[in-house]
């Protein structure tokens, strides 16, 4: 029999599916939530066969706030862990000129994830246990000229997760904030990423699984990112505003 279920929001993403694989390997039933869920049947079947756990598909759109409660009601069971891997990242220059793109990044990376995780938190709190994992970004640690729209959304999401973690302390529900840095995925395909700062999706899967087991609060998937962002955040504003990073 499979262990209690793990819900993956944004399961179509490279990161989301890598996290699903890691928890499936540990024997957890997996709930894959994504848009156009029926088109993901081959991946569902492959994961189920390889891991010998129950794997279910669930239609989910993070921008549909009215659909959050019906979506949660439709799950076969309330999961023990939820991992939010939802997100978009449009090119900064285009987002500066196209409000619809900027809005998509803001809503997909902050508003939508915050609303659905807030709803799940309420259900976990009523039950008295569960773990919520939100994948944020180092881009939210300080606004930078090259990605401040995406970074602003992630900053909001990080603040939300921090407040939620504080609120739920002592309830049996834990909240983990994950800050990956660069990840080699389809979303970053074509970008010239530094090898030492770039993680593979499977690395995130392992880091998130470990963080859940250990009850961590905030993790930088590669520890070097903590040092990098500490330095960036320490630069005086008078100097920082002249930098193009």
Distance between the ends? 50 Å
Strand content: 15-25%
Number of domains: 1
Q: How do the strands line up in the largest sheet?
A: 3-2-1-4-5-6-9
Shape: globular
Low-confidence stretches: none
Percent helix, as a range, is 40-55%
How many extended strands? 9
Please give the CATH class. Answer: Alpha Beta
| Full CATH superfamily name | NAD(P)-binding Rossmann-like Domain
Task: Find the structural class using helix and strand composition.
Answer: alpha/beta
The main sheet comes to: 7 strands, parallel
What's the order of the H and E elements?
EHEHEHEHHEHEEEHEHH
Give the mean pLDDT.
94
The DSSP helix count reads 9
> How big is the Rg?
18 Å
CATH topology: Rossmann fold
CATH architecture heading = 3-Layer(aba) Sandwich
Give your account of this protein's structure.
Helix 1 crosses helix 7 and helix 5 runs parallel beside helix 6. The protein has a seven-stranded parallel sheet, sandwiched between helices. A two-stranded parallel ribbon has the order 7-8. It has nine helices and nine strands. The radius of gyration is 18 Å and the shape is globular. It has a single domain, classed as NAD(P)-binding Rossmann-like Domain (Rossmann fold), CATH 3.40.50. It is an alpha/beta fold. Strand 1, helix 1 and strand 2 form a beta-alpha-beta unit. The mean pLDDT is 94.
């Amino acid at each position: 029999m499979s262990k209690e279920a793990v819900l993956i929001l944004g399961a179509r993403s490279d990161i989301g599916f890598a996290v699903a694989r890691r928890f499936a390997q540990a024997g957890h039933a997996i709930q894959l939530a994504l848009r156009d869920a029926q088109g993901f049947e081959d991946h569902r079947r492959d994961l189920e066969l390889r891991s010998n756990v129950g794997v279910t598909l669930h239609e989910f759109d993070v921008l549909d706030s009215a659909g959050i409660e019906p979506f949660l009601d439709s799950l076969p069971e309330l999961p023990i862990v939820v991992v939010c891997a939802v997100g978009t990242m449009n090119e900064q220059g285009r987002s500066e000129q196209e409000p619809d793109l900027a809005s998509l990044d803001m809503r997909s990376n902050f508003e939508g994830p915050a609303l659905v995780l807030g709803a799940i938190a309420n259900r976990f709190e009523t039950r008295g246990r569960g773990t919520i994992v939100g994948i944020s970004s180092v881009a939210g640690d300080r606004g930078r000229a090259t990605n401040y729209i995406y970074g602003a959304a992630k900053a909001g999401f990080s603040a939300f997760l921090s407040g939620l973690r504080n609120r739920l302390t002592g309830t049996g529900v834990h909240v983990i904030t994950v800050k990956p840095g660069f990840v080699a995925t389809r979303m970053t395909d074509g970008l010239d990423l530094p090898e030492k700062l770039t993680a593979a999706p499977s690395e995130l899967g392992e880091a998130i699984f470990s963080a859940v087991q250990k009850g961590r609060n905030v993790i930088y998937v590669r520890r070097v990112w903590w040092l990098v962002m500490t330095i960036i955040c320490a630069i005086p504003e008078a100097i920082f505003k002249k930098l193009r990073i």
